Amino acid sequence: MSAINHHLAQHHGVISRAEAIKLGMTASQLEYRLRSGRWERLSPGVYRLTGAPPLWRGNVRAAALSVQGLASHGTAATVHRIDGWDQRRIEVVVSQDRKPSRRRGITIHRSTQMTLADACELHAIPVTGLARTVLDVAAVVGPKRLEWTVDAVLRGGLLEWPDLYAIWARHSAKGRDGCGKLHALLERRYGDKAIPDSKFNRMVGQLLNDAGIDGFLYEHEILKDGRFLARADLAFPQERLAIECDSKTWHLNNHAFEADRTRQNRVTISGWTVLQFTWKTYKESPVSIVNDVYNARALLHQKAN
Residue 227: enclosing H or E segment and its boundaries? Predict the structure, then answer.
């Protein structure tokens, strides 16, 4: 049974009855492993090697197998390792014509478009394809989190704009949930080359938009005499106002700390005003960010006139 043992080792210790039979195990051998305690039954037709740690990925695999479906929505986003997603709750999707019994701790979605799910296996988990996952996420999150998710897959080179437009087009004929929100984002941003370097940059930009402050650009290159000086996280080019969003992930390490200070000095000397905001400020006093930007722009307009 080396094939069975290898399969268990590669699949989080979880196996389905169909997989075991396909690998050469007989029904009586399977029942013996259950009676002897070598395997434990997780759900009808799904088993785990006794003693295998019940880790999250193994639980997701078991959940998908138990309903003959795929990990989906936020769970799939986590499996695909989309930046900003770390969902412990388990979600799966099955075909609309199937009505599996409820499973404790598992959210079951039903889809009329399983043939478009682009099913794949990632980290030994049957899961929806990446673009379909973004569309599914669009159905269950607000516009802001959807935008963070789209930023993440574009920034990481996981998908390109045409991939997102294609997944919308493939599903839109039947009006799938999420199509409206994804289409609205695509209509507004399709082809946008300035993808924020981090989710925090986008969050600050959304905060300013919510307060009625617009006219800024993401990832704006600041030049002097045609020579590159720096790239601002957000910038108001007309006012020569740059905004730096200092999150721990992207800025607070020794190399970045020194480089950021040098860059800020060059930008300031060239006549730009630089505002810096931290994650702590965003969490504890977002209104202060809005006020500082508003006041800085007002002061710069006053000086210009």
Answer: strand 227-236
